[in-house]
Design a protein that fits this description.
- There is one protein chain.
- It is built from twelve helices and twelve strands.
- The longest helix has 24 residues.
- It starts with a strand and ends with a helix.
- The strands form two sheets. The protein has an eight-stranded mixed sheet with strand order 3-2-1-4-10-6-11-9, sandwiched between helices. A four-stranded mixed sheet has the order 5-12-7-8.
- It is of the alpha/beta class.
Length: 335
């Protein structure tokens, strides 16, 4: 068994794939396998993957029909032989040659199922780089709620590639990604947070995230994107009632996350109004139905929302919610 299985889903990233793979092969720590998942990519990625595997026996290649990022990651998890799973997107790369070495030091020190890499780099094709690390450096090992509060700081990402997880932990808790949706990390991460008691933080530079890439799936708002977010909201609301599976804090976080995504969908829905009017009305119908399930009793929910955003902002949020609900009722009458 290897220490790490580095899972790289690949689709239409021929231009960036070599940089990504070389960032793995240049690691000073070498007890890993690198799993390249060719997710039915129509360009030259398939043959490039095979070429990499012929040159280095640490590289394993999986060729499959296109199923999306979630399906590719899941395939990699099931085929992995490493103790810990590392997610790496094929247009990104590991931050430097000692990334895995420093990560292992954190794992040995705290022996946790979940490690979050707080320090990452944003970079562009023209060479511009920005270091991102807003985590409190005094936090080395903590409970989920403390970690979540750190993620709420401005400039922090909530992305699957920030997490390194023990494979046994993923399998035992069935922490797979939901197939066929965008924003799969939004659906996956709340479960990861509240299936463990302690999370370790790796403050050493870990991930280099490419921004402003042409063709990136995160670059535009679409009906598909908003409908998938509605799907995620429904999942979060269901899980928030499953107190036997999650802590009270976990259930409250899922409710809060659902409310935040609800407002995101509403806010961005006007963008697609002229693109796809049928989808627009479908989205607003679903928003109306979801609004009936979101806790709206001010006194009952005041305490956990105010803990997160403050008392004054809670009052503003509640007022905003009621304005949206009234507007949705008007839209519903037109449907």
């Amino acid at each position: 068994m290897h220490v790490f299985s580095i899972i790289i889903p690949i689709y239409k990233t021929e231009k960036y794939l070599n940089d990504c793979v070389q960032s793995v092969l240049s690691q000073s720590f070498t007890d890993y396998e690198c799993i390249l998942i060719d997710d039915g990519s129509p360009d030259n990625c398939s043959s490039l993957c095979d070429d990499f595997s012929k040159k280095d026996n640490r590289i394993k290649v999986i060729h499959k029909e296109n199923g999306g990022l979630s399906d590719a990651r899941n395939a990699g998890i099931l085929q992995a032989n490493g103790e810990y799973i590392v997610f790496l997107d094929s247009d990104d790369k590991l931050a430097n040659n000692d990334t895995l070495k420093k990560l292992l030091e954190v794992i040995h020190k705290y022996n946790t199922d979940v490690v979050i890499n707080s320090n990452f780099i944003e970079f562009t094709d023209n060479g511009k780089t920005i270091i991102k690390n807003n985590f409190n450096k005094d936090i080395q090992l903590s409970v989920p709620n403390v970690i979540i509060n750190e993620f709420k700081k401005p400039g922090m990402y909530l992305a699957g590639w920030l997490f390194v997880l023990r494979k046994e932990y993923l399998i035992n808790n069935h922490l797979f990604f939901k197939k066929g949706i965008l924003h799969e990390d939004e659906q996956w991460m709340p479960r990861v947070f509240y299936k463990t008691k302690n999370i370790a933080i790796n403050h050493y530079p870990f991930y280099a995230y490419r921004i402003e890439r042409d063709g990136s799936i995160t670059s535009k708002i679409s009906a598909k994107r908003l409908l998938d977010l509605l799907d995620i909201i429904n999942d979060l609301l269901v899980w928030s009632k499953e107190n036997e599976n999650y802590t009270t804090e976990g259930c409250l976080y899922m409710q809060e996350k659902a409310i935040a995504l609800y407002y995101d969908v509403y806010k961005f829905s006007d963008i697609i109004k002229h693109q796809d009017k049928k989808a627009y009305y479908n989205i607003h119908k679903q928003l109306i139905n979801i609004s009936k399930r979101i806790p709206v009793n001010y006194n009952r929910n005041y305490f956990f929302i105010s803990m997160i955003i403050g008392t004054y902002n809670t009052k503003l949020l509640y007022g905003f919610y009621m304005k949206i609900k009234n507007k949705l009722k008007k839209i519903d009458n037109k449907c």
